[in-house]
Amino acid sequence: MKVSAPPPTPGPTAPSEPPAAIPLEIADSARARRKGLLGRTGVSGALLLTPARGVHTVRMRFAIDVAYLDRGWRVLSVRTMRPGRLGLPRLRARHVIEAEAGAMARWGVRRGARIVLGDAGGGAE
After folding, report:
1. DSSP structure string for 11-73
2. Which residue of 31, 37, 51, 59 is surrounded by the most CB atoms within 10 Å?
């Protein structure tokens, strides 16, 4: 997974850095989406729930960042959720990315950013 930042706001320009590759686990079955991050004590990288419109943190052991994505992989919103919470579903959301609390800010994931899924292997051998 890579993050492409939204267009910069007017003002001084900073040098543009290439998007960072982030390890991504995909939960694309109903069973995998139901389990999500439950039972884990942490997560390295991120978990993509697809299709999904919302999440909860009931019975979770740690706080998470949640990014709601539309059909075009644009970030609709980013929220931090403490354990034991029910998140409101986002009607326009088609995918949800979960990561440890604070990770989305470190990665530059914010409203308007575009998420790019790619192969970290770099090709066949």
Report:
1. S---PPPPPPP--EEEE-SHHHHHHTTTT-S--SSEEEESS-S--B-TT-SS-EEEEEE-TTS
2. 37
Q: What percent of the chain has pLDDT over 70?
A: 81
pLDDT tens-digit map of 35-63: 989 888 888 899 999 999 999 999 999 99
What is the Cα–Cα distance from 41 to 90, expressed in whole angstroms? 26
Q: What's the whole-number mean pLDDT along residues 7-18?
A: 51
Q: What is the CA radius of gyration of the chain?
A: 15
Structural tokens at position 85: 């919470």
Distance CA 19, CA 112 (A): 15
